[in-house]
C-alpha cells in the first residue's frame, strides 16, 4: 500500500479498538493465537507510527473486562503475549522516551504483569512528549461504577460538595483523569460498535471504522484515518456558522 499524504491537522489523542486478530488467523488457516501474536507486532509498529505522524497520546484497547470470558487457553496465551511484550518493550520505551500509562482494573491482572507494568510506568513516568495508554481489564461501565463509588466516598468525607457537582469534578475520578479526551477513535476489522470503550471520554470524538484487520493495519492506514478526521467538522454542539468566526481568526 502506498503511503498516505501527511495530514494537515493531527488529532492530539487517538484511541484504537484493535479487532480482527482471530479472523486474520482463521483466513490463513492458523490458530487464533497466531493472530494475536501478529497483532502484538502491529501494536509495536502503530505505537511509533502514531508518534511519527504527530499524535501525542495513543490509547489501545488491549484487554477488556469481558475478555476474561473467552476460552481459558486463549486468555492464558493473551496474558503470556502481554508479559512478553512488556519485557521486550521496556528498553525501547526508555530509549525512545515513550511514557506508558494504563487504564482499567490492572490490580486484577496476573501478579507478574502487574509488576512489569509498575516497573515500566516508573521508568517512563517523566517522559512528556508522547504517551502510550494500554486499556487492560478495562470497561467503560466498570470505570463509571468505580468513579461513582470514589466520588460518593469523597462527598461523604466532605472532600466534594454534591450540589457543586459537574462533569469537570466527576471526571477527576475516572482512570483517565490526567489524559485528554480522545479526538479520534478507530476500530479495525469492519465492526461498527465501540464495545464498552471510553464511553464517557469519547462523547465528542470522531469515529472511523475500517475494514482492515488489526494485524494488517499499517502506518498508511493510520495516516488515512487521520486524513479522514481532517475532513470532519467538529462542532461540539455548536453550529457551523458559530465556528466560522473562530476559524477566521486563526
Q: Would you mind describing this structure in some detail?
A:
The chain has helices at 21-27, 32-53, 72-95, 111-124, 140-156, 167-171, 219-231, 240-248; strands at residues 13-17, 57-64, 99-103, 131-138, 184-187, 206-209. It has a six-stranded parallel beta sheet, sandwiched between helices. The protein has one domain (13-139, 180-248): Decaprenyl diphosphate synthase-like (Undecaprenyl pyrophosphate synthetase, 3-Layer(aba) Sandwich), CATH 3.40.1180. The protein is an alpha/beta fold and 250 residues long. It has eight helices and six strands, in the order E-H-H-E-H-E-H-E-H-H-E-E-H-H. The longest helix has 24 residues, at 72-95. The model is unreliable at 1-5 (pLDDT under 50).
Features:
250 residues; alpha/beta; Undecaprenyl pyrophosphate synthetase; six-stranded parallel sheet; 8 helices; 6 strands
Amino acid at each position: 500500500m502506498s503511503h498516505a499524504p501527511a495530514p494537515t491537522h493531527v488529532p492530539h489523542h487517538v484511541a484504537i479498538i484493535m479487532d480482527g486478530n482471530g479472523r486474520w488467523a482463521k483466513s490463513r488457516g492458523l490458530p487464533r493465537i497466531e493472530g494475536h501474536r501478529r497483532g502484538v507486532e502491529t501494536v509495536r509498529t502503530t505505537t511509533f507510527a502514531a508518534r511519527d505522524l504527530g499524535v501525542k497520546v495513543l490509547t489501545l484497547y488491549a484487554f477488556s473486562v469481558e475478555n476474561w470470558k473467552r476460552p481459558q487457553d486463549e486468555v492464558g496465551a493473551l496474558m503470556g503475549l502481554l508479559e512478553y511484550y512488556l519485557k521486550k518493550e521496556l528498553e525501547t520505551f526508555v530509549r525512545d522516551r515513550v511514557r506508558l500509562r494504563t487504564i482499567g482494573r490492572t490490580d486484577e491482572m496476573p501478579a507478574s504483569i502487574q509488576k512489569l507494568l509498575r516497573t515500566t510506568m516508573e521508568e517512563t513516568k517523566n517522559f512528556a512528549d508522547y504517551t502510550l495508554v494500554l486499556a487492560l481489564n478495562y470497561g467503560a461501565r466498570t470505570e463509571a461504577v468505580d468513579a461513582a463509588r470514589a466520588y460518593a466516598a469523597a462527598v461523604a468525607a466532605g472532600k466534594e460538595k454534591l450540589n457543586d457537582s459537574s462533569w469537570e469534578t466527576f471526571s477527576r475520578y475516572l482512570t483517565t483523569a490526567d489524559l485528554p479526551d480522545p479526538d479520534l477513535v478507530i476500530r479495525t476489522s469492519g465492526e461498527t460498535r465501540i464495545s464498552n470503550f471510553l464511553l464517557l471520554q469519547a462523547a465528542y470524538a470522531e469515529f472511523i471504522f475500517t475494514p482492515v484487520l488489526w494485524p494488517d493495519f499499517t502506518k498508511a492506514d493510520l495516516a488515512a484515518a487521520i486524513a479522514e478526521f481532517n475532513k470532519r467538522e467538529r462542532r461540539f454542539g455548536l453550529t457551523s456558522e458559530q465556528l466560522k468566526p473562530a476559524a477566521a481568526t486563526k
